[in-house]
Amino acid sequence: LGCVFCQNREISHQKFGKNVTPERLVEIIKELERAGAHNINLVNPTHYALSICKALKLYKPSIPVLYNSGGYERIETLKMLDGLIDIYLPDCKYVDSALSASLSGAEDYFKFNKPAIQEMVRQTGPVVLDADGIAQKGTIVRHLVLPGHTANSLRVLDWLSTLPDIWVSLMFQYTPCGDISSHKELQRSLTRRECDKVWQYMNDLGLTNGYVQDRKSSG
After folding, report:
1. Rounded-to-integer distance, Cα 81 and Cα 53, Å
2. How far is 97 from 119, CA to CA, in rounded Å?
3. Are 102 and 1 in contact, with CB atoms under 8 Å apart?
4. How far apart are CA 1 and CA 188, in angstroms?
């Protein structure tokens, strides 16, 4: 995705990082396990899915493996990972294709996002927590509310309310950054009214399993 409001441009656009083989990834996973990590959180893993698949077939950790993505996935990729991922943590950014084209360069975002999330739910089933309330299995769908686009958020929540077994993470952390010079509405933080509107709609739909981020998290 080419989100104009990206908060991680150094990582996503400036070739920041280093090469890691599947074998080295296995070593890193084992190091994290020994250090007491609660899970293995694979962030924006889509373009590395083949290498991740190879690594997890070499070694499946005893702690949950998270697939933490923008939700812009092909079914073929997800089927390749079936049985290797314990928790899917995808975004559902947009339903409106014109908006996804304008803000993320992906007019077909929801065309792929919808079946991808459905496949994730099929693989994981309901969310399962351990005795300490830490997720062990399931699909938790995130949605970042954008200033000036609450109508899109309501449509996203409408669709998510039709899915069984998911939890929703509603995020109010938006902070103006990235290349937003052509998007005046994104050059400010969310208002309290926008946050309350979307949060109340989420409750009205009965989406009570999940998390709601405090507006103070932006900044």
Report:
1. 6
2. 21
3. no
4. 22
Alpha carbons 14 and 16: distance in angstroms, whole number: 6
- Are β-strands 167-171 and 135-144 bridged in parallel, bridged antiparallel, or unpaired? parallel
Amino acid at 158: D
Return the pLDDT at 11: 66
- pLDDT at residue 113 above 50? yes
Residues 87-98 have a mean pLDDT of 95
Query: What average pLDDT does the chain have?
Result: 91
Please report, for residues 19, 20, 49, 211, the alpha-carbon distance to residue 24 in angstroms, rounded to integers and kept in the order given.
10, 6, 15, 34
Mean pLDDT of the region 16-37: 93
Q: For the chain, where are the E strands, in sequence order?
A: 40-43, 65-69, 87-90, 128-129, 135-144, 167-171, 210-212
Half-sphere exposure in the Cβ direction for 127 (13 Å, CA) = 20
Q: Output the six-digit token pair for 117.
A: 């999330």
Instruction: Find, among 20, 29, 21, the residue nearest to 59 by Cα.
Output: 29
Looking up tokens 């299995």 gives 137
Measured CA distances, 18 to 11, 15, 21, 24, 25 (Å): 11, 9, 10, 12, 12
Per-residue confidence band for 219, with pLDDT thresholds at 50, 70 and 90: very low
> Alpha helices of 6-68 — where are they, by DSSP H?
9-13, 22-34, 49-58
DSSP structure string for 86-109: SEEEEB---S-HHHHHHHHS-TTH
